[in-house]
Amino acid sequence: MAILAISVAPAGVGASVSKYVAKAIQLAQEDKRVTVEPGPMFTSIEGDIEACFDIARRMHECLFEDDDVKRVSTVIKIDDRRDKEITMSGKMQAVRRQLGRE
After folding, report:
1. Which stretch of DSSP H or E encloses residue 82?
2. Which of 24, 40, 73, 88 qualifies as a FRET site for 17, CA 20 to 30 Å off?
3. Strand residue runs (E) in the chain
């Protein structure tokens, strides 16, 4: 299982891009192959690496469906650990333990 962090945003459509970001997040949330957790700067997607790549591509492309969008910037970070299974919640639990909060 992989965890992919993605940020997609159109350029040149004004200062607020929340409607475009929401559209991309909704597309990811509708895909039952993965778990999606939106955040203030990135959306985290947990699942099979191929599914994550497919969803990332579709999130990027869906913004071009709006006639106002001529340019999209996408940032992706991937954690693909193969020696043991990782999850978003497991990673957060490990950090909380280190902070003495668990």
Report:
1. none
2. 88
3. 2-11, 35-38, 43-47, 71-79
d(CA 33, CA 29): 9
Tell me the pLDDT band of 40, cut-offs 50, 70 and 90. very high
Token digits of residue 54: 């497919």
Number of residues that make up the chain? 102
Q: What value does the mean pLDDT of the chain take?
A: 96
Sequence-separated (6 or more) residues with CB below 8 Å from residue 12: 69, 70, 71
| CA 74 to each of CA 34, 43, 62, 93, 99: distance values in angstroms, whole numbers, following the listed order | 19, 11, 12, 28, 32
> Does the pTM exceed 0.85?
yes
pLDDT tier at 101, thresholds 50, 70, 90: confident
| SS3 letters across 47-98 | ECHHHHHHHHHHHHHHHHHCCCCCEEEEEEEEECCCCCCCCHHHHHHHHHHH
